[in-house]
Prior knowledge:
This protein is mainly β. Helix content is 15%, strand content 48%. The protein has one helix and eight strands. The chain is globular.
Amino acid sequence: MKKVLFVMAVAAISTLPMSGARAVDIVNDDDTSHSISVGIEGDFQEFEIAAGETLKNVCQECIIQIGDGEPVIAEGDQLIVINDGKLN
Length: 88
């Protein structure tokens, strides 16, 4: 019985969100700032990222887009780099 309760407790804890754990970072390697859209569960927010700036712990799983450019699906501890106005 104790083993079953322990397994259930571990399973419950593992489903809790971990702040900052395995979160996506975005780095702007360009000489100009960019306005980016970040979508989490269908809700998009706009962010301004200055030249050379890094936005840390943006999301655990999201869609990132610059203007009408190609969107990028990011997750985990992925590093997204803005270079020549494009997401890489």
